[in-house]
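Supplementary Methods. Inverse-folding protocol.

Structures were first reduced to a discrete structure-token string of length 344. This string, shown here, constituted the complete conditioning input.
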């Protein structure tokens, strides 16, 4: 599944480092674990499995062997955090409840995990003398001011409880880096996609949803046809995290965009996916925009270039092809299971 050789890209600078990944069994967290074990790190993965799956960690377990330890538990549990943080130099705080529509329905549960949980992770990290914390932030913090591209110096205007939570997380990260002996950075991801992104939940990312609909031979519904997004393959987010772990200069809690710096409309995405899956006869259905969703979101990535030395390593087309192939093979595997069950 991997299209990047992390050792070729990052060498052995991180090997033997002990790190914690929260949200390890989720989509982005599991890819990060794969790369970290490949680079020779001792990795502790923490996840309460509310959305993550143990299956996502098969590769990390296989490559990492006894260098990979998985803990089932919540970031809201202080003693679990203390146990997981012990001896760690770097913490990748990836865990969150990540859905805009669900946060509108259930804002207090989102606040608890995304804001209180983030502060508990920061608190445990400073108590454990962790050197650096890398926070998975979100481009949703920008809101939908018409100014494009989105630059880190713009005033954030979150439009949903989820976006406000992630912005609060950034502020906590900065405050801890200012107030205590822990360095930190917030990586504002723009529409990350790739293998393992959950396709079965109604709150999944748009690429996962489209893949599911097309593979079931249904036309996709495009909510907000002219909406555009900076779709970013997951390996780019992993790459930014690894660069952040390797950088020696302190970040002081700053916020940095992680994206490709290129906008693609949701309609063009739907057409490209239909073509890759040989379902071009299924014409997309036009639907209204969803509450809380922003119209356009494209990043400027100059700051990431400057402070992290980041440039995207996988472009949109290559990432989309790899992702679609993964959904296709996962779909075939699930059909095989269904057929086997039918014959039992
Ligand atoms: N996917 C994107 O496009 C995107 C964009 C911007 C930001 N982000 C951020 O990236 C991070 C990862 O997102 P993802 O897409 O991989 O989502 P995901 O749902 O696949 O992963 C999140 C993981 O966190 C775990 N989790 C939730 N609550 C927890 C708790 N209390 N304790 C321990 N684990 C808990 C879940 O079980 C899940 O495995 C999140 O912080 C999200 O806000 C994602």
């Amino acid at each position: 599944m991997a299209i990047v050789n992390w050792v070729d890209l990052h060498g052995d600078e991180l090997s033997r480092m002990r790190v914690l990944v929260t949200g390890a069994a989720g989509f982005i967290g599991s890819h990060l674990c794969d790369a970290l074990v490949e680079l020779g790190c001792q990795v502790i993965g923490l996840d309460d499995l509310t959305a993550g799956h143990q299956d996502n960690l098969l590769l990390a377990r296989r490559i990492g062997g006894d260098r990979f330890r998985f803990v089932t538990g919540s970031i809201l549990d202080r003693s679990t955090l203390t146990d997981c943080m012990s001896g760690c130099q770097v913490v990748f705080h990836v865990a969150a409840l990540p859905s805009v529509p669900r946060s509108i329905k259930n804002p207090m549960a989102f606040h608890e995990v995304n804001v209180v949980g983030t502060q508990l992770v920061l608190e445990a990290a400073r108590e454990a003398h962790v050197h650096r914390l890398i926070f998975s932030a979100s481009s949703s913090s920008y809101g939908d001011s018409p100014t494009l591209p989105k630059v880190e110096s713009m005033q954030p205007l979150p439009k949903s409880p989820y976006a406000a939570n992630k912005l609060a997380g950034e502020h906590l990260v900065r405050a801890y880096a200012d107030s205590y002996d822990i360095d930190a950075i917030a990586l504002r991801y723009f529409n990350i996609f790739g293998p393992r992104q959950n396709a079965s939940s109604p709150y999944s990312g748009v690429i996962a949803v489209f893949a599911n609909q097309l593979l079931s031979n249904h036309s996709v519904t495009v909510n907000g046809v002219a909406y555009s997004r900076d779709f970013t393959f997951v390996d780019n987010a992993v790459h930014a995290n690894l660069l952040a772990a390797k950088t020696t200069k302190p970040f002081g809690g700053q916020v940095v965009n992680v994206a490709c710096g290129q906008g693609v409309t949701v309609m063009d995405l739907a057409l490209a996916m239909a073509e890759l899956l040989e379902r071009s006869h299924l014409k997309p259905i036009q639907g209204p925009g969803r509450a809380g969703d922003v119209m356009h979101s494209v990043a400027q990535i100059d700051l990431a270039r400057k402070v992290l030395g980041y440039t995207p390593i996988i472009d949109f087309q290559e990432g989309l092809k790899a992702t679609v192939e993964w959904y296709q093979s996962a779909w075939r595997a699930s059909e095989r299971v269904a057929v086997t069950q039918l014959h039992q």
